[in-house]
Amino acid sequence: MYPVISISRQFGSGGHAIGQLVAQRLSIPFFDKEIVEECSAESGFSKDVIEEQGEQVNRANKWFDLSSSAGGYFQSAQDEIFLAQRHVILEHARKGPCVIVGRCSDYILSEENDSSFKYLNVLIHANMDIRKENVHSRFPEIKEHDLVKFIEKKDKQRNAYYQYYTDRKWGLYSNYHIALDNGSLGEDKCVKIICDLAECMND
Amino acid sequence: MYPVISISRQFGSGGHAIGQLVAQRLSIPFFDKEIVEECSAESGFSKDVIEEQGEQVNRANKWFDLSSSAGGYFQSAQDEIFLAQRHVILEHARKGPCVIVGRCSDYILSEENDSSFKYLNVLIHANMDIRKENVHSRFPEIKEHDLVKFIEKKDKQRNAYYQYYTDRKWGLYSNYHIALDNGSLGEDKCVKIICDLAECMND
User: What is the spatial order of strands in the sheet that A178-181 belongs to?
Assistant: First the structure.
């Protein structure tokens, strides 16, 4: 048995960086945007489409799908992308220890009940000031007074996507083994706690 | 600056025991039921009344208070108990490092913004099977098929009390520096993580 670490994160909370540092320290693979490329190869959808639809519900598409389904079963492009991402995530989890960021990986790993690995579901969050700083350094073109709106919109899109594919509310403490306030604790402590827990999971 | 650790816990999740072990390991005082005695001495209410009303909203009392207020300001017995508990909690926090369980202490410490201490807000949770086991060993008189109902009722009462006095929803990840699944991680790991964090807070 080996650990597969899923990092769920608020947009701008620094969860991606924490996941990367955990993977580096444990010398295990890290998957975030990397999943997009593999999913593109698997599904045939372009990377742009997957990046756009791989973590947010696209309402326009959903309406289109509904009208096209003519009352029957219809698998939307977004559903196909979700299934391809799920397949890629589970393939990596079955290969060996790794860190996977977002994309409903907490739900996918917990639902699979695969005895070859132990999953560790981590939630990273931070207060709005810290998130604004992080998002500003990543998207300097966004004006100061638009930052909160931008962050809240991203949260809403990700939460809607999560709820749509998992039937769970995003961020419920009961879905995570550990939830960490990166804004108060800081990156070093978050990384250490996750690495220590992961190291205990090897047997 | 020294750490004041607030432990919020789901009923039956083992948060009380974790708090006790953290206090023992750090050699600092521990307050849970101890607050009831001090609060009784301070407020004049009996320990029984405080135990009954000190962490759950008593709807019958609230109706009585409303009818008695005749449209004006009326401080209920429960309000007085809340204020006495708040006072006792803040007095301990100002004296030195300690562990405090429940009683809205996470909210009380975060609202106070007192620069003499640093507060660490911890949430402990566990899945229902573990909680049933814990509650069964504490209340062996409760029949197996009544356990879930009993636990859910306690949750509801505590959540309503918390929401009434804090205007916050209980269990929101953003209110805690760290949330731990005691059912999956186990007591030893939870205690170690909290102690390590607390030790970093001394300066």
Answer: A30-31, A98-101, A2-9, A117-125, A178-181, B178-181, B117-125, B2-9, B98-101, B30-31
Q: Provide the whole-model pTM.
A: 0.90
Whether residue B201 lies within 8 A of chain A, CB to CB, comes out as no
Between CA B54 and CA B38 the distance in angstroms is: 12
Confidence category of residue A73, pLDDT binned at 50, 70, 90: low
Q: Chain A residue with minimal CA distance to B199?
A: A189
Q: For residues A182 and A14, is the Cβ–Cβ distance under 8 A?
A: yes
Best of B119, B180, B196, B200 to substitute, by most chain A Cβ atoms within 10 angstroms, is: B180
The torsion region of residue B11 among left (phi > 0), alpha (psi -120 to 50) and beta comes to: beta
Contact A185 B177 (CB under 8 A): yes
Q: What is the rounded end-to-end Cα distance, in angstroms, of chain B?
A: 6
| Interchain proximity A197–B176, CB inside 8 Å | no
Kindly determine whether residue A179 and residue B127, on different chains, have CB atoms separated by under 8 Å: no
Buried b (16+ CB within 10 A) or exposed e, A38-76: bbbebbebeeebbbebbbbbbeeeeeebeeeeeeeeeeb
ipTM comes to 0.88
